[in-house]
Amino acid sequence: MSHDKKSFFDKLTGAMSLKEDSKEESDELALESEESSDGQLSVDVYQTPKEIVIKTMVAGVRPEDLDVTITRDMVTIEGHREDANTTESPDYFHQELYWGSFSRTIILPQEIDTEAVEAIQKQGMLIIRLPKIDRNKQSKVKIKSEGK
Fold first, then answer.
1. Distances in whole angstroms, Cα of residue 62 to Cα of each of 25, 67, 106
2. pLDDT 10s digits, 1-24
3. What value, to the nearest 5°, has the Cα angle with vertex 76 and ends 134 and 54?
4. First vs last Cα of the chain: how many Å apart?
5. What are the distances in angstroms from CA 25 to CA 1, 8, 16, 37, 100?
6. Is 39-131 in CATH node 2.60.40.790?
7. What's the pLDDT tens digit per position in 105-133?
8. Rounded to an integer, what distance in angstroms lies between the CA atom of residue 60 and that of residue 4?
9. 28, 29, 67, 99, 103 from 35: Cα distances, Å
10. Phi-psi category of residue 28: left, alpha or beta, with phi > 0 → left and psi -120 to 50 → alpha
C-alpha cells in the first residue's frame, strides 16, 4: 500500500486525504475515538510528607455515581454525570460542559496504604488522601523470654 507524503499544510492542520489508500489511517482514528469515548477528569496530584493527595472537580455527580478503585500504586476514578437539561443542540450558543461517563487513572509515584485511604466529596470537589507507605521506617522488636 503506497502512502502519499502529506504537505506541510496537511501536517499542520492534521488534514487527511480521503483516498482509498488512507482507509487504514481512518480505521486507526476510529479505533482511537472508540477507546477514548469517556471524558477525562482534570486532576491535581500533590504530596505532603505523609500522603499523596488527589483533587478533582465532580460537580453534579452523586457519590453513588462515583467509583474509586485503588491499588498500592494506582488510582482509577470513574463516574457518570447526567444532564437534566432537555435543550436541543441547535438552541445552544456554547456547549462546553461534559455530560456522560468519565474516567481517569493516575499512576502514583510511590506505594500507598490502601487500607487507610480517605475520600471526601465537598462542594463539588472530590479529595482523595492516600497515606504513603514508609519503606524506611524501622521498628524494634521486643524479644520475649520463654522460661521453663
1. 39, 11, 21
2. 445 555 544 544 454 444 444 444
3. 55
4. 86
5. 12, 18, 9, 19, 28
6. yes
7. 999 999 999 999 999 999 999 999 999 98
8. 47
9. 11, 10, 19, 17, 12
10. alpha
Q: Answer whether 109's CB lies under 8 Å from 31's CB.
A: no
Residue at grid coordinates 480505521: 27
Pairing mode, strands 74-81 and 100-107? antiparallel
Per-domain residue ranges of the chain: 39-131
Q: What is the chain's length?
A: 148
pTM here is 0.63
Q: For 2-100, where are the alpha helices, taking DSSP H only? A: 8-13, 23-35
Contact 101, 113 (CB under 8 A): no
Quick check: helix, strand or coil at residue 130?
strand
